[in-house]
């Protein structure tokens, strides 16, 4: 079951970045602008951001088999639509359908892993999830560059297609139901507010990164999505059976570790955005070369994630997170000194070191936070954790791109700065460095936790006094 879930999630997460280097030939064939073609990647992330919060409700409403087979089936349909697309709107629709299935897979996999593995082995299990989360998106650009240079961009769909079909066939025979069904009632208003809030927020920050923060349309979208999100949160806190349980933030370690994971994931996506921009636009490396520079770091993460998972099972997350964030911060600080002569090897090595540090942070802190939650809140915890990471990446990328462009413009007026664009990239990396330092400070507050046993017998409708006592005790305090 674990291998099957990992394989399904790997295929779906890989598609987040698989279209990046295929954009130029798609622009030529379908006669669309760069801004339009970029939506092939952006829309995948947006729909993921909408689907992930809904997944907590779906996991409690449908069985593991139903949800997994449906998600992979939807993803397969989207892959076929993308492969046969005669025009750009159909291609974009295929990506939307793909991402609807993909958005369910990661929270579902994390929830099932936490259900089928005992607490003392969760670190190892989540280490393999870390492998998928870090490795799959990182190899996307390099793989895409090779496929589009050797074949047609349509092979990005056709070469992937047999894999989800095979996974569906195997899952039909071996996948078991492990999640507990509570059959919550459908609340259409919550789904609408969630989609408008999270989806609009991600869309708004994407607009900010492209059109700037002063764009009236950007400001309207951000204001509207913020209002929808506020209404959604208020409604969830008042409901007896909420679609997404925001009370998970009452657990201190979960809140702290979610904050650290947001910082780490923001740095990951931010770096994967800035490095290709620097290499391709400022140093004239090819898209394939910029993807290749990120590949060793992805391989190191793939190798280290299961190892750090086993270490987590023995010593907990605090020491791993502190050491990992120090390594990550040092490598990020080094990226703040890029110049016109920085070599391909230097970029590759620094990124590999950064990813080595990240492998010690991402899944250990996520697992530590989820370990504090009772089983009934795990679907909500995994959905919330993934949603917050997605929002952080979207917000962070928009902010970093804005910092880079505004710094480049101001540096262009300074005759002492030879390469304003590179100076802008360096400034953006300084911001990531500062955030990473804040992550180090937070890491010292991470404690080794276990699910509160008393909470398992608590009513699903509301927290009992016993669960609250257990909550505080696990954080090192009495009620």
Automatic annotation (TrEMBL):
SUPFAM superfamilies, alphabetized: MFS general substrate transporter
Domain Major facilitator superfamily (MFS) profile: residue ranges: 1-451
Pfam families: MFS_1
Keywords assigned: Cell membrane, Membrane, Transmembrane, Transmembrane helix, Transport
Region called Disordered, residue ranges: 452-479
Record's keyword annotation contains Magnesium: no
Transmembrane regions listed in the UniProt entry: 38-59, 66-85, 97-116, 128-149, 155-174, 186-205, 217-237, 249-270, 290-307, 319-338, 350-370, 391-409, 421-446
Subcellular location: Cell membrane
InterPro entries xref list: EmrB-like, MFS, MFS_dom, MFS_trans_sf
Membrane-topology annotation of the record: Multi-pass membrane protein
Protein name: Multidrug efflux MFS transporter
